[in-house]
Amino acid sequence: MPVSIKTPEEIEKMRVACRLAAEQLDYIAPFVQPGITTDELNKLCHDYTVNVQGAVPAPLHYSPQGHTPYPKSICTSINHQVCHGVPGDKVLKNGDILNIDVTPIKDGWHGDASRMFYVGTPSIQAKRLCEITYHAMWLGIRSVRPGAYLGDIGYAIQRYVESQGYSVVREFCGHGIGRKFHEEPQVLHYGKPRSGLKLEVGMVFTIEPMVNAGKAAIRQLGDGWTVVTKDHSLSAQWEHTVVVTEDGVEVLTVSAGTPGEPEF
Ligand code: MF3
Ligand code: CO
Ligand code: CO
User: pTM higher than 0.70 for the full model?
Assistant: First the structure.
C-alpha cells in the first residue's frame, strides 16, 4: 500500500479528530495528581471521549497482529515504562512522570497525541528528560516540508537526543494515520539525512519519539502491551499528528492547552 495523500476535505476531518485528542489531554491534565490511579484517569478520558466529544477511543479493543486486544481507552506509561502502559490500580505518587496517549476517532478519522505530565514535583533529571524529549519531537516536526525525507526527521531527533546523552527507542515509530489508526509510512525516530520516503503535500503522520535516560533496549511485560526500559531507566515520549503543507508543516493535534513550540 502506498502512502495516502489526503485531500483538503479529509485534512479538515483530521483537524477535528486531532483537536479532540489535544482537548482530551487538556481535560485530563488537572486530574494528574498524587493519589489518583491510572484506571481512574482511563475512566475519566473514556467518558469524556464518548459523552462529551461524541468520539470513540481507538485503543479500546485495538488488536494489531500478534497482540491481544488492548483492554483500555488510553495508554498511561509511568517512569521507566516506554509506551503502551495499560491503566490499572497503580496509584500515582509525587515525583512520577507520566505519558498519557489518546486517540479519539471522530466521523471515522483518527487523531493521535500524547504528552508528558509531572505528578507533583519531578526530579531535576526527570524534568530534563521530558524537556529534551519535547525538543526532540519539535526538531522532528521542523524537519517536515515537501521535498524533505523521512530520514531527515529521524536524523534530527536522533542527533539531538544522543548529543544530550540519551537514547532513542528503535522498536516503535511514528506512523501514517487517517481512517486507520496505523498506516504507512513508518516514521522512524532515528536515521540518515536524505534517506527514505520523500515527503509530499497532504501526507499525514505522527512524530512520537520515545527517549530513554539510559540504554535504548526495551522489554515487553507479561500483559502483552506495556513496554519498559530493560535497564529500568526513565523514559519519556511526546506525540503530535502533523500534515505536510505547501509551506512546510501544520501540527493538527492542537488545542487551547497545547504547549508551545520551544525556542531553539
Ligand atoms: N497511541 C499509540 C500510538 O501512538 C498506539 C497505542 S496502541 C494501543 O501509536 F493499543 F496500545 F492503544
Ligand atoms: Co501514534
Ligand atoms: Co499515540
Answer: yes
